[in-house]
């Protein structure tokens, strides 16, 4: 049995659910992969807990967090004075799982510092956090390569959908002519609410109640989130060095309720569509804009909780992947998928 020691940074929707998945999956991981995953340390915004020997109990971490507590209050092993990067810098562990907020406007902290620290220490890194990947794609990959470790981030694009795994692994040998993606869930929920006659306030309140829409909604509704995901797809799948400034962006709020309702009457659903189109000179044009998708479109039959991607290729045809994600468990599970990709590759 191989033991793999993990450090978790960020114990919100995803970190908590990952802690719940570990005991559920322990027997399967042992039987199928001869793997035992041990939580050596965990951190939230108020402190950390660290177990140098046997590990922390993930079910207890999840319980503490469900009760809105801090992991720094973990019995005996809580370290209230430690910040996340203190834990990452000191822990005896092989993998950092980084699931703190994106924070692009604050330099992608604390994720980026934790990830740099882990990679420099020779730890593998798994993260669903777009911030550091969008901000420092090349730098972090170079650091990983220098340290001989892996950097995996399948959860950064379209929740639990294996859009990056398929794009990087299964399209080898192909030229990708075009990508179409609906990578943001909240904007689809709001669009469907508006199409059914809700006001903007009602549709946004419903998406907020579903736990998908954050803050004032600008990140999701104005296309920033979809643009960040497109940048990651471009870099990782197309090997095209794009940044946020390369994406032309128009948000859902540029469409009025009447347009959304008449599209719905015609059997179409508005979604923020992220596209990458290959040009004759080999560059890609990247855009995010609201599009009324007909049912005949490969992404046109998704419900309000759907996300998806279509890869249009020269030799494999058009490959479409979709997911229905009603709660963040599939997104949390991408961290397990990435860990298994490192320690139990097929
Ligand atoms: N939710 C989804 O469906 C989803 C899907 C795919 C990707 N993601 C990405 O995954 C990441 C986590 O998402 P989430 O929904 O789990 O976020 P969340 O619910 O807001 O949780 C964020 C966690 O990070 C912690 N945190 C905040 N600042 C910190 C700091 N300075 N040091 C250490 N920990 C800090 C918070 O601590 P406290 O508990 O003390 O507040 C909380 O535990 C984000 O980058 C998000 O974009 C989310």
Could you explain the architecture of this structure?
By secondary structure, this protein is an alpha/beta fold. The protein has 13 helices and 13 strands. Helix 3 (84-90) runs parallel beside helix 4 and helix 8 packs across helix 9. The longest helix is centred in the N-terminal third of the chain and has 21 residues, at 13-33. Bound molecules: NADP nicotinamide-adenine-dinucleotide phosphate (NAP). Residues 9-15, 43-46, 70, 84, 99-102, 110, 128-130, 155, 159, 328, 331 line the site of NADP nicotinamide-adenine-dinucleotide phosphate.
Largest sheet: 7 strands, mixed
Helices and strands, in N-to-C order?
EHEEHEHEHEHHEHEHHHHEHEEEEH
How many helical elements?
13
Low-confidence residue ranges? none
Mean pLDDT: 96
- What are the bound molecules? NADP nicotinamide-adenine-dinucleotide phosphate
Tell me the helix content: 25-40%
Strand content: 15-25%
Distance, first to last CA: 18 Å
- Class by helix and strand content? alpha/beta
What does the overall shape look like? globular
Strand order of the largest sheet: 4-3-2-1-5-6-7
How big is the Rg?
20 Å
Strand tally = 13
Short descriptors:
13 strands; 13 helices; six-stranded mixed β-sheet; 346 residues; alpha/beta; binds NADP nicotinamide-adenine-dinucleotide phosphate; seven-stranded mixed β-sheet
